[in-house]
Design goal:
The complex is a heterodimer of chains A (about 240) and B (about 375). Chain A is α/β, with parallel strands linked by helices. Chain A is built from 11 helices and 15 strands. The termini of chain A are far apart. The chains are: A alpha/beta (about 240), B alpha+beta (about 375). Chain A: GO terms for molecular function: ribosomal large subunit binding; translation initiation factor activity.
């Protein structure tokens, strides 16, 4: 299910939050509304943690993570690091890395199996990503943009990329990532996909400017609609036994 | 945070938007002279680094001659954000290498005024993000309202953008972000005509809620309710580095369009909706914090201005207004060194329509100084 939300009149929800299959990080500040929307969707399933990174609220763009781990930039303070280690589940490895390109969320995009990274990332960082996040790393560009973390977002079930991605690139990326991909926009035509939305395997949060068309594309490519009770009634009807004769 | 790690410089705005890139890839055909009157340059200086607006391109234009060389050296800027910004943008900026004392780079830019169009959505939304405080309101609806009113209202963009779009190639322009690069916006909305729209309702509610002064509250209430059909909400937003010479022209174009609308609009009702008797303005100012400790060393404080107006014409408006009130802004305050003695306040003013010609004269005088 995709939900529309905003952070202090700002539709770039992917900037102020980071959603994975094992946890969710949310920025401090903003109204309680932002936090409570996440809580109401996710509270029973995964922890929702309020945090800042390096004293800033743009946590979604500074960190990158999946169910196996979380990577933080060198600007993260010791308190923030400790706070995250305390709040996140034990199986999530929280690591602060020394990388010149400190906006990790803009440079790296990943799911639980594969990661796409900025072509200029350090070799050491690439190894750390493979290690901590448990993923296979590919250096790529998206529609000629090196900030792959900003212009695409993908979960284990599907992905959305920059609208100007060519068909060949889409096919190539889809093969690398092993998930279906679609080129589209979010927040009423914004090309910065990952800033405008955040997604995991069963839910997505998009900026409130996202049109109904964009939302339906998101729900279909990330296969979010199938979680609905109606799926059981409509698709599985024939296999259900209603009554015994 | 005492963790010992330093904050990174704020992420450069150019990372997401072609804003800075388009400014530097600006057309070389013709150029506008942008000499700044010293008065406004000095006044603009301290609050230009205010992080309330996206950071401006590294330097202002000081001379008009084009030069052909790429510039490698640039004066280091106190604002860390432009440091990383300039690295990628330097190859396009040109400056006069001979003049050793010349520390500023020349940027050539052609600005043009356009009618609002639906494709300006993102640019206008960006400019209006800080219009009210951080409390959620129907900003999207407000932007849509402004873009629908094409007869009165102006947006300022780079001069070349419109021609590219006119070629009818749909969304296939090389740089898809061109149409987003708005530098300024001015419009006036009739509060009575749009009174039923959710955004205007939200705005009225907000203003009544933040008004602390009983007296102003009464006047504001009457303006928003009984007199709404003759009240225009004057919205003027622009980036911090917007060349000040264009501001009087911006206001001129607005008031001219308003008077043309009173004749050109198709129905009598619409024509009347532009016969404004009063204008309502919502602006931002910086007020000096009154610190009890400072009163002891009061000599130091006398040098500082009690109020700073990021938009100079707001000072003129305030003097000509029939009434006004200020309210505190709760959103994140700027942490700039020069600004730490000031706190950001909102300012609401009501200006009678008869005072407008006086305003226009004073604005011209201010710029020609």
């Amino acid at each position: 299910m995709a939900t529309r939300i905003q952070f202090e009149n700002n539709c770039e929800v992917g900037v102020f939050s980071k959603l994975t299959n094992a946890y969710c990080l949310v920025a401090i500040g903003g109204s309680e509304n932002f936090y409570s929307t996440f809580e109401s969707e996710l509270a029973d399933v995964i922890p929702v943690v309020k945090t800042s990174i390096g004293g800033t609220r743009i946590i979604g763009r500074l960190c990158v993570g999946n169910k196996n781990g979380l990577l933080l930039p060198h600007t993260t303070t010791d308190q923030e690091l400790q706070h995250l280690r305390n709040c996140l589940p034990d199986q999530v490895v929280v690591q602060r890395i020394d990388e010149r390109l400190s906006a990790l969320g803009n440079c790296i995009s990943c799911n639980d199996h594969v990661a796409l990274t900025h072509p200029d990332l350090d070799k050491a960082t690439e190894e750390l990503i493979a290690d901590v996040l448990g993923v296979e790393v590919f250096r790529q560009t998206i529609a000629g943009n090196i900030l792959v973390g900003s212009y695409c977002t993908f979960s284990n079930r599907g992905g959305l990329v920059h609208p100007h991605t060519s068909i060949e690139d889409l096919d190539e990326l889809s093969t690398l990532l092993q998930v279906p991909l679609v080129a589209g926009t979010v927040n009423r035509g914004s090309e910065v996909i990952a800033a405008g939305m955040t997604v995991n395997d069963w839910t997505a949060f998009c900026g409130s400017d996202t049109t109904a068309t964009e939302l339906s594309v998101i729900e279909s490519v990330f296969k979010l609609r199938e979680g609905q009770p109606t799926a059981i009634v409509d698709d599985m009807r024939k296999s259900l036994i209603d009554s015994y004769v | 945070m005492s963790g010992g790690r330093k904050r990174p410089a704020p992420a450069p705005f150019a990372g997401f938007s072609p804003f800075a890139r388009s400014l530097l890839f600006s057309p070389a055909s013709g150029y506008c002279k942008l000499p700044l009157p010293n008065a406004s340059a000095a006044a603009d200086g301290p609050h230009q680094e205010n992080a309330g607006m996206p950071p401006p391109p590294p330097k202002r234009a000081k001379q008009a001659e084009p030069s052909s060389d790429d510039e490698e050296r640039h004066s280091s800027d106190a604002d860390g954000a432009s440091g990383s910004d300039s690295d990628s943008s330097l190859e396009c900026s040109s400056s006069d290498g001979d003049d050793a004392s010349q520390e500023l780079e020349t940027v050539q830019a052609d600005f043009a005024f356009f009618d609002p169009k639906p494709s300006d959505f993102h640019g206008v939304r960006l400019l209006l993000k800080t219009y009210l405080d951080s409390k959620p309101w129907d900003l999207t609806g407000f932007v849509d309202l402004i873009l629908e009113q094409t007869t009165v209202g102006t947006v300022v963009k780079m001069a070349d953008d419109e021609e590219e779009e006119g070629e009818g190639n749909g969304g296939d322009k090389g740089d898809g972000g061109n149409d987003d690069d708005l530098f300024g916006l001015i419009t006036v909305l009739n509060l009575g005509r749009y009174g039923e729209n959710r955004c205007i309702k939200d705005l009225k509610e907000y203003l009544l809620a933040v008004c602390g002064n009983k007296d102003s509250e009464k006047k504001l209430k009457s303006l928003l309710e009984e007199k709404a059909s003759s009240v225009g909400l004057l919205v003027c937003r622009r980036f911090v580095n917007f060349p000040y010479e264009m501001v009087p022209k911006l206001y001129d174009s607005l008031f001219d369009e308003v008077s043309w609308a009173t004749e050109d609009e198709p129905t009598q009702e619409l024509q009347d909706s532009f016969r404004f008797k009063q204008y309502l303005l919502v602006a931002r100012i910086l007020e000096r914090k009154t610190n009890p400790k400072h009163n002891a060393k009061n000599n130091k404080d006398d040098d500082e201005e009690p109020v700073i107006y990021p938009k100079l014409e707001d000072e003129i408006f305030r003097e000509l207004s029939s009434w006004s009130f200020t309210f505190p802004i709760r959103a994140d305050q700027s942490a700039q060194q020069e600004m730490k003695n000031y706190k950001e306040m909102g300012l609401v003013m009501c200006v009678k329509a008869e005072a407008i010609p006086k305003f226009r004269k004073r604005l011209e005088a201010l710029v020609s100084e």
